Amino acid sequence: PYSPVIEVDARKLVVLSGQVAVDLDGGVVGDTIAEQTRATLDNCRRQLATAGCGFADVFKVNVYLADLADWEAFNGVYEALLPEPRPVRTTVQAVLIPGFRVEIEMWAVKP
Fold first, then answer.
1. pTM here?
2. Phi-psi bin for 65: left (phi > 0), alpha (psi -120 to 50), beta?
3. Residue 33 and residue 109: Cα distance in Å, rounded?
4. CA 26 to CA 111: how far, in whole Å?
5. C-alpha distances out from residue 4 to 1, 21, 37, 81, 86, Å
6. How far apart are the two ends of the chain, measured CA to CA in Å?
7. DSSP, residue by residue, 42-67
8. In angstroms, rounded to a whole number, what is the distance separating the alpha carbons of residues 48 and 91?
9. How do residues 64-105 score in pLDDT, each as one tens digit?
């Protein structure tokens, strides 16, 4: 679930560093990819809000999965939470910090 191309006005870029499924105390949230994806996207939502943005303002997402076998379960949560038109997206398998199944980076434009 993604858009192949999106054009944006880049005068007010907001870029999130990689977010993971961690709570405010630094503990890992969730064991499954679905739980960790939801927690990671919740962290992304909170970070975007600090810049006055939301998911509708996101135009680019980079996703790092510890295991590409989690692709379908990840997509199910992602598709349910990201509004259309969905951002352009790259998803790759990567070695993540132990305990984490997904890391997400987002690019947005302030409204």
1. 0.91
2. beta
3. 28
4. 31
5. 10, 27, 22, 18, 9
6. 23
7. HHHHHHHHHTT--GGGEEEEEEEES-
8. 20
9. 999 999 999 999 999 999 999 999 999 999 999 999 999 999
